[in-house]
Amino acid sequence: MSDLPNCPKCQSTYTYEDRDLFVCPECGNEWAAGETAEEEGLKINDANGNPLTDGDTVTVIKDLKVKGSSLVVKVGTKVKNIRLVDGDHDIDCKIDGIGPMKLKSEFVKKA
Question: How far apart are CA 102 and CA 88, in angstroms?
Answer without folding.
Answer: 9
